[in-house]
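Box S1 | Example of a co-folding query
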Amino acid sequence: MASPELIVVGSVALDTVTSPAGSVTEALGGSATYFSAAAAILARVGMVAVVGEDFPAEHLTTLSERGVALDGLETAPGRTFRWKGAYEEDLNLAITYDTQLNVFETFEPKLPALWSDTPFVFLANIDPRLQLQVLDMVPGTAFVGADTMNFWIEGKREELSRVIARVDCLTMNDAEIRQFSGEENLLAAIDATAGLGPEYIIVKRGEYGAMLWHAGDLFLLPAWPLGRVTDPTGAGDTFAGGFFGYLASQGEVSPTTVRHGLVLGTVLASFTVEGFSLTGLLAVTPAALARRVTEFGAMTAVTGTGPVLPAP
Ligand code: AMP
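Box S1 (continued) | Returned holo structure for adenosine monophosphate
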């Protein structure tokens, strides 16, 4: 494969998840996994991560068949990262029962030589120490995004703040940006976080959609309405993969590519939550994606000049 247009560093995991729809044990998961499986639909994506010697070879096949470049995925002695979580009535809220970093504890990311001038970089949810190491390896001209979660906000706030100060685009869910900023009101939370430096902030709001802040302006999208959610795990990473995958495929960050990228992120995330692990996302066909994107456009369009208002 030609060198990637987009690289992601993040977790590759074996997830044990329970939701009202059922459960899976040690299924393929991880922030970099969902991100790259979504982004690969749109752009050439390479992954920087580590797995243990116990990682099933079939998962590597799944990712490379998807088109994800795995030159930056190391296999280290020890066990693969494991996450155990559950969702109860509130499907927007993941309850973590267990996080085992395993091989990520001693991981030192390395960038394959040909990847060093990749124009788009995403620091998916992982130890901010690793996010900082990757930031040091990529050129200052790259468009860089980052994501995180409560685990790191609680455990590595100082390093995380340094990551946020150095990226162009931050994605967080609503609970996380409230927790990080200490502000209950979302606009106040965005304002406080923007003060650290990111030019773009995307707040993911689960079934309520997403909010983009850029230079004081807001852009809002609902989520794709689903009658049944099976497993919300990976929705945020898929969203970011769709968004960054689209930007990388177009090779530019403009008001139009950003909005279209948010649509792709939103629609792809809807496929992820329809199944456990990566089953929903891996089953997406170009035709199914195109159908949802078209319907989503129709659902959200405000046509013409807008409503007729009383004369002033
Ligand atoms: P989300 O898109 O937020 O639902 O991300 C879900 C994925 O994050 C799961 O597949 C987990 O393996 C992964 N994950 C959970 N906790 C952590 C953590 N502390 N660091 C990195 N990845 C994690």
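The two ends are 60 Å apart (CA to CA). The longest helix spans residues 255-272.
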